[in-house]
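As a warm-up, study this chain.
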Amino acid sequence: MKKQITCKDAPAAVGPYSQGILANGMLFISGQLPLDAKTGEMAEGISAQTRQILENIKSIVTEAGGSMDNIVRCGVFLKNMDDFAEMNEVYKEFFNAPAPARTTVEVSRLPKDPRIEIEAIAML
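Now compare it with the structure written out below.
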């Protein structure tokens, strides 16, 4: 059985999908954009966008009853791989060792045209 996770402290889905789905102790968090849930504004710059996304992910995993320590995998989608080092500086602030497994890829375009999107999987 699956349960939809909806969190008012993260931006609403911009399409026909859920912020998160909890199934068999696993939380699947949809790709998050760097949008502020309260204002709808997009953060500027790769550091601010990474921070906003990870705050959104933190809100969703907390709503499901977990914490950032429960995250076991992330997928990072960058518009420009030149942002990799700067993104990593912010990313590492959100995770204790051992860090989640991760894939990072460069993509040509993302919804609403941010510089980054991140998805996550947590074990609760």
